Here is the input.
Amino acid sequence: MTIKYYTDASFESAWVTSPDPAYNSVAKELKMAYGSDTQGNFIEITVPSLEYWNMIYFRSTKK
Here is the structure.
């Protein structure tokens, strides 16, 4: 599943975790791609699997 998240923020990384068997509640880093289209700037990530639910979170570049 590919997700396009519209934002002007910059992120260092994206992660996913889930109680689903594919993750077993362990966070996994996702590949991110930045882009823009007529609706604005976005980050695109691909989530490898989804059985029940996933939690996706981003690590900000701001400290």
The two ends are 30 Å apart (CA to CA).
